[in-house]
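Example 9 (inverse folding). The structure is encoded as follows.
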């Protein structure tokens, strides 16, 4: 026996639960639409409208409908008539309420005014003055607030089906989910029930009607076709040819030939490397300063013109095509239509032709089906008294589902920042959309809790929290870092690399229960990032800006979940920097790289290696030179101090020590001077080599064109 047997209401009659004992609020009034045609079908949508269908045999020349005044516009805008053998409707007439002209008088009111007492004379002039008249109350409308719409027919006997739309309370879903035991495959099963609650406020009892509930909201608006509209028209008159105002003229000033466009802005300053050493641009400037013919070449980048303008094209929307439309929905009446092009006014009446079939009375519900929505058609007729609520069973079937945990901090639940929720998780394996509504969760016949189901399309998975689990505790920690270097592009001799800004979010889960805890962590996604190597089964929900990351924590144990996100950005770097070296070598070692670009990069990087070697030696020698110069200066000061010492001629030991120090300082100063001379000569040679290699690296990089980086693996 199904686990739903605890909730069944009986046999077939149990599928329809009438809440007749709960009358809906509202004053007594007649039905919104009344007619001799019996109500046969009602389709209720989720946007506050319902489609009504009436049918019957008519042997008169017209059919009358009593329609509430505020419903006439919707009635006329959605009226659809079907008759076997073709439509026999000639016209639909209805009364129009006109605004009374202020200048027009009312005979009855004039009679009442004539019987009033004459006004008293004004005391100062002796002339009668009319007393102030109180405002007249608006006239009350006679009748029950309904007007008659008449359909004029041809012939004598008619089998009519008439459909129209009227305001109706939306139907609301309600769900039941009974969690079952997990199968041997590890997947869980659950039984799902979906109920629909309908309210009848139409003013009449629905007896033996076919009821359909549509899980969708087609576009529906309030129509005012019953209101007369007279748009204002312009007044045309002949008042002569006098110019009422002096026209304003326009002056064009003479201009010279258009000036050339300004040069683009200089690229980002990269005069210093990340290590604080020389940049290639700085070395190039030094190299150019040492050449007499430096003016013959232009390396400033000013020769680059502006980017070409994107071409603009005008586009015009094509007129809608007119064609034939045919539809046949679920046993309804077939409907075909042909939209014809307008023709000139005929000089005589055209010959009679077979009239095109009017719209299908099932069209509204069928359109909802074509739009991807779901319609629930009850297989039996129902009775729904006026001012009552009805609960009908829409589906009952087994779905994949289980009860697990979800860590999803919610500002409305303070403890949810430290403890996860207990959730019911199931897959909508039905053929239709499940609308938003409350759900009650049961397990083994026991009530576990309630939650809300968001709109769930077929195949989607719902995760519904229904309780808070304090046996599990979660702490969160987040760190940031900048990593990796990928060659992004080479343009005008400038290198651009792509780096990743990395976010690490660590969730520490402690399980204090006696069972293993399968937990989903709802991780709030950083905008513009991507998940890096997420755990298997992770659901990255781009629409909600979050990801559901699965994690299982053993009983009485602890587990750490590390969620890594990365955001890529591009920056310009100097060719001599370590980041540029890492990015270029990674590109050359990638088998997906452009072979031609790799060959050119190898030449440039060989020259860069020689330049880097010369620079390293120069930097080392310059550091040694600075040290020797400081040491030599100190030695000179020491020698000057010794010259000022006056030794006692009788103190032989003191005189010998002074002489020994003088000799030592002199020898050291001589060695330092000799080494400084060698360093100066080598630095001169290295300066020439650095300048030459700098120009070579610059020229080789300028000949390379790389437009985009390789895709991230």
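The amino acid assigned to each position is listed next.
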């Amino acid at each position: 026996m199904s686990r739903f047997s605890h909730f069944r209401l009986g046999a077939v009659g149990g599928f329809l639960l009438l809440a007749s004992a709960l009358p809906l609020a509202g004053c007594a009034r007649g039905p919104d639409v009344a007619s001799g045609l019996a109500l046969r079908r009602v389709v209720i949508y989720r946007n506050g409208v319902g489609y009504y269908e009436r049918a019957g045999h008519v042997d008169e020349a017209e059919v009358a409908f009593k329609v509430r005044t505020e419903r006439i516009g919707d009635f006329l805008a959605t009226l659809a008539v079907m008759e076997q053998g073709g439509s026999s409707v000639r016209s639909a007439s209805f009364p129009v309420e006109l605004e009374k002209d202020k200048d027009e008088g009312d005979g009855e009111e004039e009679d009442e005014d004539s019987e009033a007492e004459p006004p008293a004379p004004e005391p100062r002039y002796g002339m009668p003055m009319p007393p102030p008249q109180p405002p007249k109350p608006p006239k009350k409308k006679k009748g029950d607030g309904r007007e008659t719409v008449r359909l004029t027919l041809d012939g004598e006997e008619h089998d009519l089906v008439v459909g129209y739309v009227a305001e109706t309370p939306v139907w609301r879903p309600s769900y039941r989910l009974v969690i079952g035991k997990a199968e041997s495959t590890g997947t869980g099963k659950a039984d799902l029930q979906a109920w629909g609650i309908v309210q009848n406020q139409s003013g009449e009892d629905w007896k033996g009607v076919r009821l359909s509930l549509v899980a969708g909201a087609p576009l529906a608006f309030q129509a005012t076709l019953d209101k007369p509209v007279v748009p204002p028209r312009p007044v045309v008159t002949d008042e002569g040819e006098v110019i009422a105002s002096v026209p304003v003229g326009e002056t064009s000033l003479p201009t010279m030939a258009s000036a050339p466009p300004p040069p683009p802005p200089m690229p980002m300053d990269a005069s210093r490397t990340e290590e604080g050493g020389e940049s290639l641009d700085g070395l190039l400037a030094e190299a150019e300063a040492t050449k007499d013919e430096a003016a013959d070449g232009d390396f400033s980048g000013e020769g680059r013109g502006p980017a070409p303008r994107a071409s603009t094209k005008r586009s015009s929307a094509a007129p809608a095509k007119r064609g034939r439309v045919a539809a046949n929905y679920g046993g309804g009446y077939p409907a075909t239509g042909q939209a014809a092009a307008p023709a000139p006014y005929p000089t005589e009446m055209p010959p009679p032709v077979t009239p095109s079939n009017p719209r299908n009375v099932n069209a509204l519900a069928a359109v909802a089906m074509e739009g991807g929505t779901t319609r629930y058609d009850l297989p039996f007729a129902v009775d729904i008294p006026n001012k009552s609520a009805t609960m009908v069973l829409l589906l009952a079937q087994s779905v994949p589902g289980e009860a697990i945990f979800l860590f999803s901090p919610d500002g409305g639940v303070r403890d949810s920042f430290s403890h996860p929720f207990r959730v019911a998780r199931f897959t909508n394996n039905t053929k239709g959309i499940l609308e938003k509504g409350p759900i009650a969760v049961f397990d083994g016949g026991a009530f576990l809790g309630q939650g809300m189901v968001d709109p769930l399309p077929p195949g989607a998975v719902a995760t519904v929290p229904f309780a808070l689990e304090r046996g599990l505790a979660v702490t969160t920690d987040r760190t940031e870092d900048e990593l990796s270097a990928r060659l992004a592009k080479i343009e005008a001799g400038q290198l651009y690399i792509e780096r990743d800004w990395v976010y690490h979010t660590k969730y520490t889960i402690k399980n204090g229960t006696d069972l293993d805890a399968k937990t989903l962590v709802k991780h709030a996604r950083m905008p513009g990032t991507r998940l890096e190597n997420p755990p298997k089964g992770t659901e990255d929900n781009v629409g909600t800006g979050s990801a559901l990351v699965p994690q299982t924590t053993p009983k009485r144990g602890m587990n750490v979940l590390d969620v890594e996100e990365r955001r890529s950005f591009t920056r310009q770097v100097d060719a001599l920097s370590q980041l540029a070296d890492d990015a270029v070598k990674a590109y050359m070692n990638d088998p997906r790289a452009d072979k031609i670009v790799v060959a050119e990069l190898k030449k440039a990087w060989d020259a860069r290696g020689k330049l880097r070697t010369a620079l390293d030696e120069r930097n080392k020698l310059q550091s040694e030179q600075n040290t020797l110069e400081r040491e030599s200066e100190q030695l000179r000061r020491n020698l000057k101090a010794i010259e000022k010492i006056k030794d006692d001629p009788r103190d032989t030991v003191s005189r010998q020590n002074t002489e020994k120090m003088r000799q030592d300082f002199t020898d050291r100063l001589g060695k330092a001077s000799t080494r400084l001379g060698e360093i100066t000569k080598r630095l001169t040679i290295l300066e020439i080599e650095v300048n030459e290699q700098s120009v070579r690296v610059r020229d080789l990089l300028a000949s390379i064109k790389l437009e985009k980086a390789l895709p991230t693996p």
